[in-house]
Protein 1
Amino acid sequence: MPGVHRDRIKAHGRRRLLLQTLTACVSNGYVQGFITGKVFGGPTKAACVPWLNCYSCPGAVASCPVGSLQTVLGGRSRGISFYVMGLLVLFGVVLGRLVCGLLCPFGFIQDLLYRIPLPKLELPRKLDRALRWLKYVVAGLLVVALPVALRATTGTGAPFFCKFLCPAGMLEGALPLMAANPRLAAQIGILFWWKIVVLAVVVLVSMCVQRPFCKYLCPLGAFYGLFNRVSLYQMHVERSSCASCHSCVSACPMGLNPEREVNGPECIRCGNCKAACPTSAIVAGFELRVREALAKRDSAA
């Protein structure tokens, strides 16, 4: 691998790591919460960040959109949160799953876990593709259908995804709160141990498989993926420059072939493929910038 190409990949990795770190710190910047074991309750908590970030994290300065949506859907008001839905649609239309690849703190945690030097696994293609549909089932069933159905029968629904499945809630919320406030240990029940098992499985699998939660379970990724092909931010593979060396395939954390799937619903737009391409055949940016880049390239040729 030429030195310039290798340096470009390293530089991209450093920039991405810095952005992910800043996002995680800004989202969970209430340091006092980690010391006192109390959840931040300031005015910014009424706002939502566009990525998965637990409301109960003692450092969280804003709310998780998935948790907020479930709270409204399962509430007594029988309303729809146009604020939360509008926010999700806005970020979907503008960025698509770039939110997952560059901004989401739990995606960042998975990236760090995968760096642990353990044997890496690759699921059989058919199994992998089948499992990717699970996140749509999670989104439709746990996030929307069950809270609404329970509200219709009992008057109040429950945040099923947050309560029974979300590993970010346990890692970012429950465990830090218990560490800072030991009295919470007296309230531990079977649900806590179930969530510990879920978190342990996700953590262990993340050490051997890249981004398993993003691939198979995340309802937010499922939603943003629906906008990938129409979002303002786009990626493009210039066929005339592509050497079909598959360097982009090896670099993709989602196990995709960017030549065919660069703007598909599974692409998290992390930019790894673009950095790994030795011929600079992959361009990325907002649609106008992509068109300008292609026009300049064609005119130069």
Protein 2
Amino acid sequence: MPVITNIQDLKRIYERRVPRMFYDYAESGSWSEQTFRDNTSDFDQIRLRQRVAVDMAGRSTASQMIGQDVAMPVALAPVGLTGMQHADGEIKAARAAAAFGVPFTLSTMSINSIEDVAEATDTPFWFQLYTMKDMDYTQRLIQRAKDAGCSALVITLDLQILGQRHKDLKNGLSAPPKLTPKTIANLATKWRWGIEMLGAKRREFGNIVGHVDGISDTSSLGAWTAEQFDPTLDWGKVERLMDMWGGKVILKGILDAEDAKMAAQVGADAIVVSNHGGRQLDGALSSIRMLPAIMDAVGDQVEVHLDSGIRSGQDVLKALALGATGTMVGRAFVYGLGAMGQTGVTRALEVIHKELDTTMALCGEKNVANLGRHNLLVPQDFGGLWQG
């Protein structure tokens, strides 16, 4: 087995092993990909304060996210098509997360269904909801998540319409992949992926196929999905969805202080500062750059998590030190999954945990709860001198 010391090691193996259309699906942003790039590079602008001669024994990264005990304040973000990155990908990622002691979030656009994951795991997971025009389907989806014992509903707010991702259009992204000459040529080099996929429980969108009238194959599914995302989603509908759920709710896709205030006002248990990994509004600011302003606006009213751009435990520490209660990682665990299945997800979590723990110690802290701005050196103009 190769020596894995960081997330980039997993990414290199992932790129070799997974078909190009699914690698590109994960490793791309919308339009020029400016926001996709900024999400990671902006973390590099924040530096750490080294402290010495501090007792570093007995460190702990244990924390809570929405009242749930976690081994470290990191959840696996909802990622569509995870079951195309590796056979039974959602099940394997959920098992790795449960064993490690962090939350797993299942996407509406997953390959393994809510029921598949619930049946294969003993730990409650979070369910991410895309709001559809078909309210009957949405209500049934929420009920299925309740029946499966999901412990939180994550409502994604920043995908009422789909941002354009050039690579997905050029690759003809579909699940399972359509067999064009280009796709067949690429799949021929990914034989290990193909053999494992032959034994997969599912190879199409498990939360949709069989649950919506008229959806029987992926061609009709693609048309249905394009038509079904609800562009009329507003705060009134968000409140109705929250009432329908009746449990813990996380609102994902907040990138503006005014929207953060609205999310707190409707009674969300947490918000996720996120730009959908740079996959929706290209040209928006990075999540980490927007975090301080959002913390100033609502940090005392609602729990604030952050995703988009996290590739290391140091990134996690920087988000926590800027005030976030928790973080979400998407691509980082997908790299591990595509590279080595469940073992790879575990390895990604181990890498992030070790980086978080070691960095925390070298910054002179013993507990993640004590992290704060005093641990960072932040450029004076990090928020940006922008004119609204």
Protein 3
Amino acid sequence: MKKPDLATYIGLFGGVFVLLWGMASGSELTLFLDFPSVLITIGGSLASMLINHDLNQIKNMFKNMFLAFTSFDLEPQDLIELFSELARKARREGLLGLEDDINRLDDPFFAKGIQMMVDAIDPEVIRNILETDIECMVERHEENIGVIKAWAALAPAFGMIGTLIGLIQMLANLDDPSALGPGMAVALITTFYGSLMANFVLIPIAGKLEKRNADEVLIKSLILEGIIGIQSGLNPRILEEKLKAFLPKSKVADLSLEGSKQEGVAYDA
């Protein structure tokens, strides 16, 4: 259910190009390279993160950061069409007829819901179980996003710490005026690294993960309402209209247009 997110890749490579072009246009790129500054900014902020969070949180943070580079392959409109089809099938063959559709999607949440529906579990019990799954998922996502935001707050601070270290070293050598300019440049590089790390990497990734969380909640909420609607014997047409409420008006219009073009589609009364 995942596919590469083009917006993230375009933004990443576009940002790198613009930054490199801007740095190279007025000076040599090597001027912006300083290993001690990288060590202070990245290493120092990561060390502070380890003090503030446990190791599992840090591991999960790195693991989930890569989710910013993927998006859902399954669109909400596709889910609505799928549940309309499943509702019609359930009316013809009964709920047991949906047993073959448990693995219709590569999604454990969908499979779990369909299995409970086939097992004739009470709709309210199914709703409670699936809503609990969604709530726990949101809590996990918010925790990971919070850890990334915490790192984004620490990176500029350690950039400033690196700058202060550089200024102290520079002021200790005031007897050599020729070293003041290069020393000031090196001192400011850590602030540059900290701002770049926070505003170009961490904050945008946290924002994209918030969007991914909202997308996943929408998908799972559609699955939940679709399963409950079928389990409750809701008319397929009514179920479809109910699920359309999750979509913005523009997508509802597109879905209605596609439906009107299909031939031979009839809903059971």
